[in-house]
Design a protein that fits this description.
The complex is a heterodimer of chains A (114) and B (115). With 114 residues, chain A is mostly beta strands. Chain A has strands at 5-7, 10-13, 19-24, 31-38, 42-50, 53-57, 64-68, 74-78, 87-94, 103-105, 109-113. Chain A is built from no helices and 11 strands. Classes of the chains: A mainly beta (114), B mainly beta (115).
Chain lengths: 114, 115
């Protein structure tokens, strides 16, 4: 079974631009979560989607948004990019019926904001 | 809000030896899960081991085991017979029980296994 895939793997943008990242979960996984990883703040939860609905949201500004499609694929959008948005963005999918809600992570998208 | 603390930013161990990584957490929840994730250099994060809070028995996965002390809110990871491939960043993570998918991570411990 294929793992979680994220595209693109690397991205360079300039301040003020917007960006869209994509995540395809493992087949059969209906929950998709997004995390931001930076050297200073570590791993921080952005939001989680299930059945096209955002169920949980972390403490990030409204510039960070996401959505989930009927096939469980998810996109994350960051508008008006700031230098501090440079990070590794990780997507994780989970099988809803698993009691642990174990999350399987993708390789991440490395975003650099210049 | 839950917090997870990993007090050892970096550790090193000789190949074939045993090393213990520390993790403490703070929560008022009774139903929760704890995880150790491994993130090798430039590779994706994978789950190493997991523990349910209501299980007193410590989880074990091959060379990896945990020491779960619920009253002390401590969840340490022991790696036996360390291998070069164990070199990675290790993250301790907390998850509330129920339909909650948010993981709260510690800042991580960079483990280097030396030949």
């Amino acid at each position: 079974k294929a793992g979680v895939t994220q595209t693109p793997r690397y991205l360079i943008k300039t301040r003020g631009q917007q960006v869209t990242l994509s995540c395809s979960p493992i087949s059969g996984h209906r929950s998709v979560s997004w995390y931001q990883q930076t050297p200073g703040q570590g791993l921080q939860f952005l939001f989680e989607y299930f059945s096209e609905t955002q169920r949980n949201k972390g403490n990030f500004p409204g510039r960070f948004s996401g959505r989930q499609f009927s096939n469980s694929r998810s996109e994350m959008n960051v508008s008006t990019l700031e230098l501090g948005d440079s990070a590794l963005y990780l997507c994780a999918s989970s099988l809803v019926s698993d009691q642990y809600n174990e999350q399987f992570f993708g390789p991440g998208t490395r975003l650099t904001v210049l | 809000a839950q917090t997870v603390t990993q007090s050892q930013p970096e550790m090193s161990v000789q190949e074939a030896e045993t090393v213990t990584l520390s993790c403490t957490y703070d929560t008022s929840e009774n139903n929760y899960y704890l995880f150790w994730y491994k993130q090798p250099p430039s590779r994706q994060m994978i789950l190493v081991i997991r523990q349910e809070a209501y299980k007193q028995q410590n989880a074990t996965e091959n060379r990896f085991s945990v020491n779960f002390q619920k009253a002390a809110k401590s969840f340490s990871l022991k790696i036996s017979d360390s291998q070069l491939g164990d070199t990675a960043m290790y993250f301790c993570a907390f998850k509330r029980g129920g339909s909650n998918y948010k993981l709260t991570f510690g800042k991580g411990t960079l483990l280097t296994v030396n030949p």
